Amino acid sequence: MTTTAPAPTPALPDDVPVERPRRRRAGRLPYALVLPATALLALSLAYPLIRQVVLSFHEYGLAQQFGQPAAWVGLDNYRALVSDAYLWNVVLRTVVFCLFNAGVTMLLGMGVALLMRLMSGPVRLLVQAGLLLAWAMPVVASLTVWQWLFDTQYGVVNWTLTHIGGDYQGHSWLLEPLSFFFVATVIVVWMSVPFVAFTSYAALTQVSEDLTEAAELDGAGAWQRLRHVVLPSIRPVLLVIALLQVIWDLRVFTQIYVLQKAGGVTRDTNLLGTYIYRLGIGGGDFGTAAAVAMFMLALTVLLTAPYVRLMLKAEED
């Protein structure tokens, strides 16, 4: 069998221009579409931040709200805060509360997500509906329910613990700081677990079954498959969830404020959010409150920096 060689391509004359593929030039339309959103974001974030920084260098109280010029005090607000032992107690309390709640929320949310993989369709749908209702419930409405549950005289929690042999008749959960933060932790974790569970479950559904089956054939147990196959596969998602959870738990305000109003000792249960509120709105010292807010911003950056670094490293890998 003989093969015929392809005919050579005829050469073009030198005076015939060769048409080259044109590069698509990006016009100004994409930038014009992004510009309004960018400007709005910069205005909504940059102006309050700059205003907060400027306010922290002034003595700004109730008189300044009625037109009196604010006196420039420089770093005096920051010096007063650094030398204030109570502020450091609040910072330590806030960091411990934040990290503990974030850790418990991640463990429970991940556990619920793993359990949902093992559930049948109807049961999983029922659990997801319950989680969605708990997540969608307004904060103040849910806090009202929790206050009744832990009520001193009529609370279901005291009634249950008393009937199983405990001495909780008339026990007040909000007077002691330890029990106060126990109640606050229960509420915060209960409201945060649905988000972690839904997001983790969505990530788990994307894990390749071939990997888990191959690990099982190699003799890996359930815990080994979870540790060496499943968790590394969803690590980027877990890092994002942990980052958001730390930020949200560091900025907890409504739960603590409402529980303080319900009977908690304010000075012994203040976190940074409620401390800023009571300095500014409650005490009229807006300059010091702004300085504490900047301190809280720096603390947020410090706590979230390791997660951001891990996320960037994971993206590079």
TrEMBL record:
GO biological-process terms attached to the record: transmembrane transport
Record-linked Pfam families: BPD_transp_1
Key word Translocase present: no
Cellular component GO terms held in the UniProt record: plasma membrane
Keywords: Cell membrane, Membrane, Transmembrane, Transmembrane helix, Transport
SUPFAM superfamilies (UniProt xref): MetI-like (SSF161098)
Domain ABC transmembrane type-1: 91-307
Membrane topology per record: Multi-pass membrane protein
Keyword Hydrolase: no
InterPro entries listed in its UniProt record: MetI-like, MetI-like_sf, UgpAE/MalFG_permease
Principal subcellular localisation of the protein: membrane
Residue ranges of the TM segments: 29-50, 90-113, 125-149, 180-204, 229-248, 286-308
Localization of this protein: Cell membrane
UniProt family annotation: Belongs to the binding-protein-dependent transport system permease family.
Record-given protein name: Sugar ABC transporter permease
